[in-house]
Amino acid sequence: MNDDLFKSIPQGGCGAETPENRRIYEVADELRRRCKLYEAQFRDGKDHLNHLDIEQRVAEQYAKENGIWLPMNDVFGLGVPGPSGNENDTYVSNDIIYKVNNLLNSGSILKLFEKIALHNDLFYDTAYTLYAFTGFDGRTVMPVFQQPMVKNAQPATNIEIETYMAALGFVKIDDKGRFSNEKYEVWDLVPRNVLKDKEGDTFVIDAEIKKLAIY
To answer: What is the largest CA-CA distance in the chain?
Structure first.
């Protein structure tokens, strides 16, 4: 098992004190603690422990104990189905978009939580909030996040994305939506993931983010 997955998510970022990130850190810390206990309990009985399987089992137990388990059949009641991407199925209700994340990109609940916390640090106008966990009992478990909907918006152009990121202090690395500054590298900033509303304001709704090793 990769021990790096169970190190604490850094909490020194500018968004660490937001309610959204406080909740994410709280849940991540508890899942991490339970993963360690699970690993210790079953280490002698199994040659190879799959970290994602462990995360899913402890996340399911935690969600059911804390009233945030959403049976898979109830997911469709979240709202009107919206566009689906590589890792998210979306549902729209009033001013909220619910995103059911299949972990395809992250491969880990804890890694996904870290990425979400970094998104909230950098792009607070579209901050994610943990809503629930869903899935099938004893099988696949997926986090469900909610995010404010950007109304009357359309995809930003590549030039608009570059201008916006430059204003945040990021430098363009390539033509595939990758940017960096002294602390972060952000990629997949392409028109489908960045919106511009009728007032001309730009909103990053989805991105891949990592904190650079020196931080």
So the answer is: 60
